[in-house]
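User: Structure tokens for both sequences below?

Assistant:
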Amino acid sequence: TRLAQEAPHRWHAGEDELLSEYHEVSADLDSNGSVLMSITRRGFLLLGLVALAPAFIFGAPTATELAVSVGGLLLATLALESASASVQTLIAAAVSFEQIRGLLDSAGRTEQQGIMATLPRQVKGADHGKPLVEMRGLGFRYSPHHKPVITGCDLQIRRGDRLLLEGASGSGKSTLAAILAGLRTPTDGLLLLDGMDRPTLGAFRWQQRVTFAPQFHENHVFAGTFLLNVLIGREWPAWAEDIQEARDICEELGLGPLIRRMPGGVNQMVGESGWQLSHGERSRLYIARTLMQGTDLMLLDESFAALDPETLSLALRCVLRRADSVLVIAHP
């Protein structure tokens, strides 16, 4: 995610500090552990010799008694070292278990025990016809020294609406979609989602309600499995229901033959180091990823541009069937 979204100079931000802190903590742990083991081993041996001292001072032990006493002391010292090492191993195992506890819990969860998905699933058809998004006199400019890209825009999107936004290149269509998605802040006017503006609702909650598939050059196929790319934004490890829904959406988008052609199916590695997807296959992957969010409003920016008429018809039917409200951006 950092490679895809951050500027290059931010790719490794904080890693040196984390590595330095890890090195210091590890050095302290090793040093303290060595001192503790040394004191324990040598202290026990010294204590044993002190305990045997009266026998040498006040009596004359035989060679056999001497050998048994010293041998027993050495064996006890070795046993203490083994016990100490075992305790250290148990502590390390406990720490490792705590680190992977979340993964084990996720792998063994049931529907009743599971955690609610981060993104709420919306009930399709709920409150259709009610206002969802309202723009009043909205304007946007990239800087105070540039001409405004959008001026005086008034728009209302109701639940259940299917809208097509057409316009020439550079007319501000993608900028408007970015504002609707909460990726840009309007410089003028008012933008409301369910009667609340973005500062009131919060960026995270806003983006839970509106999902955006940007233009092809601004979207990404991540190095991972095909399924992971579709389910980005959903809970992971994935629920069986989410996996089945992802399969169904891919079939409806005409990606079934691709999945059956790949040796690993939905678990096939894709991206730069895996199976190479065509322009149209990537576009439909992005549509499937966006549909899986189950949000109130779905924004598709030139998502159908690379599709032939037959595939476009399949993809459009899938979107209209599954999206609650949708805004499609296209060239005239």
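Moving on to the next sequence.
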Amino acid sequence: MDALDRGREAYRKRAWADAHRLLDDADRDAPLGADDLERLANAAYMLGRYDEHARALERAHLARLEAGETTAAAHCAVWLGLTLSMRGELAQGSGWLGRAQRLVERERHDCVERGYLLIPAMREYEVTGRFEDGCRIAADAAEIAQRFGDPDLLALSLHQHGRFLVRLGRVEPGLALLDEAMVAVMAGELSPIV
């Protein structure tokens, strides 16, 4: 097996250091395609190499755009926006989320990325204490996740909805949603970053 195949195998096994090293080596030999750039980005993130994560995900985004994969490019942009915002790089994060929104709107068809684009609003509602509004938008995101069979968005939405309910004093149903989200984590159903 060459470095790329070994890197993919290490990624599948969640051996992040090996996956990162091997995929990075393969990228030096020949530029990686979008799927492998996303793997490289995730491996870098899991190792705390956030700048490398952003660079690889930007390249994956551009590769998706060049291939005419607008929705997949929007997905990369969403994750860039979310991860940069979580790191406190709010201007860059907001810019990437805006790009994702524009790409999704341009496609004019329903897609799971519309649900991911609700996550920043959930955070805003939590910070501003608008927990009832947060419950509604988290439920909307969960419905989108279920419609598209996206376990990551579903877990994130259930988790946030549970937090809103707890903050509203509805502890029992809130904890039930938090427990449901944790089942997906423990079952290994989610992507590495989630």
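User: Anything stand out in the second?

Assistant: The chain has a mean pLDDT of 96.
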